[in-house]
Amino acid sequence: MTRYAIIMSVENYEHFSPTKFTHADSNLIFHTLTGKCDYAEQHTIVFQLSPETSKSPNEILSDIKRRVANSTSGDSVLFYFAGHGHYQDGKTYLILPTTVPGAYETTAIALEDLSKELRVPERACFRIFDACHSGIDVRDDPEKLDSESFIRSVNHDASGWVTLAGCKEDQFSISDANIGQGLFTYYLCEEISSFKPDQPIYPEILKVNISDKVFEHAKGLGYTQTPTLNASISGNISIATRRADVVLSAHEKTADGGTSIDFRIARLAEDKDVLTNEHLENVLNILTEKCVAELKNATSLNFEIVVSEKIKANDIPEEMHSSIVKFSRNIGIEPRHDIERYEVEYDDPYDTYFGVLSSLYPRKKRKRISYYVGQPDDMPLSATIIEFKGDGRCLPDIKVLLYLIPLQITGCMLVSVFNCGWRNNSNDLKLVKNFYQMLKPDDSEERIKEIGPFSAKGAMENITNIVEKRVELLERELQE
Description:
- By secondary structure, the protein is an alpha+beta fold.
- It is about 30% helix and about 25% strand.
- The protein is globular and about 70 Å long.
């Protein structure tokens, strides 16, 4: 089973009062789900919206639809929202940064529309709302947000959902500047973190265990807040499974609360080394097999798909080197392969002055930047390339690089999608997107298998978008 999460927060609005700490809340729920539970970052999408970076309702729904389309039977989908909510004329809305009072149908997200995209058959569906914050007002319109009816609607319309809400319909969601979080999200994540490794986390238990904590904290601030749970799904369905933390034992701590370097070295020495040639070869074989199978299944487009033989990093096309080097530098990894950026400074040959005085003026300096990807001879084959051969008109040529990058103890599984265009020019590569997953020492073969299908689905999603835009361009060209 794969878990998918859509996390959305809005803190500032053009027409409504701010909702404090909602971006901090979405950060906390993201790191709790991906860092402490069985949610992968690649399966999680985060919208931290503001008036400067806002998206339209249709753009957000389209992004969500594409993400959920990657799920299969038995997977779970979680939606988290922190911000303002509103109820009007029988419809429930999530307020966006640029939502206009009175124009909710076109400038806010209708919960009904969101549910259509998220509530996929044969998936476990969860909703978490830390909405309806205290101090709501409308800055330039007499109309008020109906937060009470919003919460009532959220709790009563639970068909196909398990819904956790931060408060009852006659209450507000409270935040505390001393902790820099909303109370509901803070205690929710604290409770999730308290579960033991491999223990399933059930929404009913979360609600029971955090209710008193939220109530007492809010009471101390002069408010009343009680989380609620509503579900229309029978049986016990876990919202997450706790992953193990790396925890230092008490004797590994020094007197000042630090950690002895000796114990830290000893603990690292106990970790399994994933960099055996046999293991690396096995991981690349699994990644290639799963990616190829999923790519073939994920598209109805008439591409011819060709899989290259496995190659060394030295044989990765030079046109791909710059994107690999930039990726490595951006995420801060230390590869055992040679993934380097070089700068050479030289005099500008065209920067000269005419006449007898030209020799008195120094020439300007320019930089020549080059990139290199290679590997030691004693390391195993580490990459393969999947080619999508297009038709030269609607379908572009696409190359998908699968590259297993050995690090110092662990590894990084990189899947890069390149668009080669429509003119059969294999040197004209444009990076579309990178997908990656860190390989841990205790990873099971089943977990390694997950990265292939996910990356393939993500790659096909991007390839399909390229084709759709190309078709629209050609159709528009014929109409003009």
